[in-house]
Amino acid sequence: MTTSPGSELGTALGLGFSEELPAPIVGTVVITGTDTGVGKTIVTAAIAAAATAAGQRVAVIKPAQTGTADGDEPDAVTVARLAEPATTRTLASFPDPLAPLAAARVAGEDPLTAVMAQLTARSIAEDHDLTLIEGAGGLLVPLGEGGWTALDLAAALGATAVVVARAGLGTLNHTALTLEALARRDVPAVVVIGAWPAEPQLVHRTNLQDLAGDLAGAIPDGAGVMPPPLFRREAGHWLDPRLYGRFDPVAFCSRSR
Ligand SMILES: Nc1ncnc2c1ncn2[C@@H]1O[C@H](COP(=O)(O)OP(=O)(O)OP(=O)(O)O)[C@@H](O)[C@H]1O
Ligand SMILES: [Mg+2]
Questions:
Q1: Which protein family is named in the record (predicted)?
Q2: pTM to 2 decimals?
Q3: What is the chain's mean pLDDT, rounded?
Q4: 80: three-class secondary structure by DSSP
Q5: How far is the CA of 115 from the centre of ligand 1 (A)?
Q6: CB of residue 198 inside a 6 A radius of ligand 1
Q7: What angle do CA 227, 44, 157 make, to 5 degrees?
Q8: Whose CA is nearest to atom 11 of ligand 1?
Q9: What is the dihedral of CA 91, 96, 100, 102, to 10 degrees?
Q10: Domains in the chain and their CATH numbers?
Q11: In which band, very low, low, confident or very high, does the pLDDT at 257 lie, cut at 50, 70 and 90?
């Protein structure tokens, strides 16, 4: 009987993996989404919390934060508060709530270069087990100089992508389009639902059956406002073993039929 590297790592992490369970994703993961406001930050925090609880040294990078003038909590601060990973870092911030390249232009500031984003991510990844990079908006939003995107960054870093998707109407098309764009650049991807309603309606249940890609988690709606210690305790229930949790996508989909 042979054991997969995943089962060995799973056992070492105390996740109780058997051979059949998929390996936890290590290295660099780009958290992208089908749109802005889909729950990327909450999903990033949940993965960071579950991996940290499994003994991993986790870094979270937000390459470009916009809308800082609105007084909203920056995404890296939300993740630090909810998940307490080893490291959180924001590389560039701009006041207006716009896509990062536009926000830099409007502010008259230099946008973040792709080279700087890649160098920083590689350097941070060297002394962490898992490095999570949260994009801004959806996959093809221009993040910096020359219009580089989260897709370009994921491809350059050889990262895996987590596509955060909505639960409701419209998600089938947006999720399929996002996964197609990732596949064209050979970026492996899993899907996590950003906010699964407490009382799923017909549209949510049918979407689950037809959603493209490989479902690796579903965060309950309301998770973002949980007290952080509760959030950290619960995070492992929302994510499957690839994302350091105990969520079972097959059981979840059949329960939700
Ligand atoms: N599971 C959840 N529980 C509670 N609130 C949530 C959940 N997911 C998302 N939200 C809320 O929805 C809003 C948008 O979520 P979030 O900020 O995570 O989106 P995002 O995809 O990170 O957007 P951005 O592109 O601005 O980074 C926030 O107010 C957040 O608190
Ligand atoms: Mg966010």
A1: Belongs to the dethiobiotin synthetase family.
A2: 0.92
A3: 93
A4: helix
A5: 28
A6: no
A7: 160
A8: 39
A9: -140
A10: 29-255 (3.40.50.300)
A11: confident
Q: Which tokens sit at 152?
A: 């370009």
The contacts of residue 229 (CB under 8 Å, 6+ apart) are none
Residue 124: closest CA among 159, 149, 75, 77: 159
pLDDT for 236 equals: 98
Instruction: Please pick, among 10, 62, 150, 223, the residue that the annotation labels catalytic.
Output: 62
The residues pairing with 130 across neighbouring beta strands, listed in sequence order, are 27, 58
Q: How far is the CA of 19 from the centre of ligand 1 (A)?
A: 34
- Banded model confidence at residue 255, pLDDT cuts 50, 70, 90: confident
List all residues 6 or more positions away from 72 whose beta carbon is below 8 Å from its beta carbon.
none
Residue nearest to atom 29 of ligand 1 (CA): 37
Which segments of 18-82 are extended strands (E)?
27-33, 58-66
Residue 55 corresponds to which tokens in the numbers above?
């003994």
CA distance 75 to 28: 18
**Residue 41, ligand 1, Cβ within 6 A:** yes
* Residue 17 CA to ligand 2 centre (angstroms): 31
- Helix (H) or strand (E) segment spanning residue 10: helix 5-12
| Tens of pLDDT, residues 168-206 | 999 999 999 999 999 999 999 999 999 999 999 999 999
b/e 194-204 (16+ beta carbons within 10 angstroms → b): bbbeeebeeeb
Tell me the CA–centroid distance for residue 32 and ligand 2, in Å.
9
Return binding residues for substrate.
66
The answer to whether 62 is a known catalytic residue is: yes
35, 36, 38, 41: which to mutate for ligand 1, most atoms within 8 A of CB? 41
The two beta strands, 215-220 and 58-66, are unpaired
